[in-house]
Amino acid sequence: MINLLLNLVFEKEIGSSIVKEIKERVSPDHFYMVVGDTKELSIFEKLGDCILRDNAYRGIYDDRLELEENIPIDDSLLQFMNQHSLEIMHQQRRFEHYPVEEVDESWNSHYTIYMHNLFFWYNFLIKKQITHVFLSLIPHEGYDITIYYLCRYLNIQLQMVHSSIIPFRRFPLKDILDIEPVIKEEYETLLAKYKESDISDIPLEGKTIEVFERWSSLEPDKMKPWYMRVNPFKRRLRQRFFETNIFRIWRGMLGEDYVKYGLSGAFIKAAFGKFPQLMAMIPVAFKRWRFVLPIKRKSIRLNAFYESLAQLPKEGEQYIYFPLHYQPEATSNPMGGDMYADQILALNILSQALPKHMKIYVKSHPEQLALMITKEYYKDMARIPRVHLMKKECSTFDLMKNAVAVSTLTGTAIWECQFFGIPAIVFGYSLKNPAPLSYPVRTVEDCKKAIGKILDKGVEDKTRELKIYTKAMHNISFPIEEREKVLPGLISNFIAGKDNVLEGIEHC
C-alpha cells in the first residue's frame, strides 16, 4: 500500500504537470496534497485530496475533523513533541504580520494553532494510513514541521529537498539535523579522485563554473549573492508584502510582452489590452501600501535604534565576526537546531569560550524588518560580554577578511569566509558543516576546542579543496529549472526505498 502526502504544491514550483507525472510513476493507492495557492485549489482537486496551506498555517480544519472518532493526544506523543513545541510556535510567528491572513501574536493564539495542527495531523497521518511524505521545502511554517516530527514519531517514510549553497540548485535530504552524510561521502570520494590533480584540472559543470569563479575571485562585488545586489531592505519588503508601487506592478504585467515584442505596435496593443487589469490592481496596491506602511516605519525605527548601539571596528582588535541571520527564515529555524534559532544563545556560548582579549563583532542583517526582533533584543545582545554591534556601513567582507574566524548558524558568510582562508565556527546544520574550514559546534567546550585549533593553524588557503567541495555540491543536487524532469523520478526512487533518490535521473 502506498498512501502519499505531498507538501507543498503550486503551479510555480511543483505544478499540476509534475503531480500528474508523479501519480503515473508511483500509482499511489491514495494521494493527498497541501496546496499553496487558494486560486489553484480546483486544479489540484482533480488530482487528489487537498488541504489548503492558508488554513493549515492557521490551524483551521473545521470541515475535516471527525471528532466522534478522534485519536486523542496521549502522554507519549506529548513528551515527544514537547521538546519541539517552542521551535514550532516560533515558526508560526512568521505569519503575525502577513499580508494574506494574519495570525494573532498572543500566546493563546499560537498555542491553539499548535494544538490544532498537532491533533489534526496526528489523526490524519494515522487514519489515512499515510506511508510516505514528501516535503518540497525545508519545513519552517509550523504546520509542516509538525508533520515532519510526527513522521519521526510514527516511523513514516519522509523525503525533502532544500536549496543548495550553489544558487538555484536543490539537493535531497531526509533529516534536517543530519545533513553531513548527504555531502560528506561525495566530497571524500572526490578528494581521493583528485588527490594528485592541480586545481585547474578539477572540472566543474554548467553554471557552477561561473559561481565558483565569483566565489574564488575574492572581489566583494562579484562574491555578493544575487539577492544582495539590490537594496536589501526594499527587496525584503517587496518579497514579504508584495509590490505596492503601481508603476512596478504595471512594468511587471508587461514584462513578458516586452520580451516577446519589444517596443513595437504589438507591444502597445498588448499594453492597452491589459489596461483593465492595471485599473483593477490600483486598489490592491493601495491596500498593500496601507498594510506595509506601519511595518516599514517600525522597521526603520528599529534599524535606527540598532545604529545607535553600534560602533565601528577598532584597528588591531582580535575578533570573531558574527553576522546575524534574517529572521524569520528556515536558515535559523529549524536549521539552527531547536532553540538555537535564538542567536543570543549562540553568542552567549561563543562569548564564554573566547580568550578574554578577543571580541565578537555582530552585524545586523541588511534585510531585517521589525519581525521577531525588538529593541530589547538588541539591548540584550549588546550586554553580552565581548559583544560589539557593528555599524551597517561596515563592509561584511572587510569584517570577514580581518576576523580570526566567522561564526553564525548556517549563513552564507561561513562559506564565503573560507575563500579568504578564514575558518568558520558553525552552530547550525547545513551543507556548509563539512566544508574544509568549518568547525561545527554546539557547546562552550566545542567552541573552546575549535578556537584552540583555529589559533594554532591561522589562515589557510583551501581554494583547491573548496573547488572539490563545490563539485561535490553540484553532483548531489539538481537545477531548479529541471524540477519537472527530476522530481517525479526522485519521488519514485524515494518510494522504492533507494538510498540515492537521484539515482538514474539525468540532471545537469
Plain-language structure description:
This protein has 508 residues and is an alpha/beta fold. The protein has three domains: 3-164 and 477-495, Rossmann fold (3-Layer(aba) Sandwich), CATH 3.40.50; 181-229 and 313-473, Glycogen Phosphorylase B (Rossmann fold); 232-307, no CATH class. The chain is 47% helix and 11% strand. The chain has helices at 16-26, 41-45, 53-56, 75-82, 85-92, 107-127, 143-154, 180-193, 207-217, 220-223, 232-241, 246-261, 265-273, 275-309, 343-353, 375-383, 396-401, 413-416, 444-457, 463-475, 483-495, and strands spanning 3-9, 30-35, 49-52, 132-135, 157-163, 169-173, 319-323, 359-363, 387-389, 405-408, 424-426, 438-440, 478-479. It has a seven-stranded mixed beta sheet, with helices on both faces. α5 crosses α6, α12 (246-261) packs across α13 (265-273) and α15 (343-353) packs across α19. The two termini are 33 Å apart.
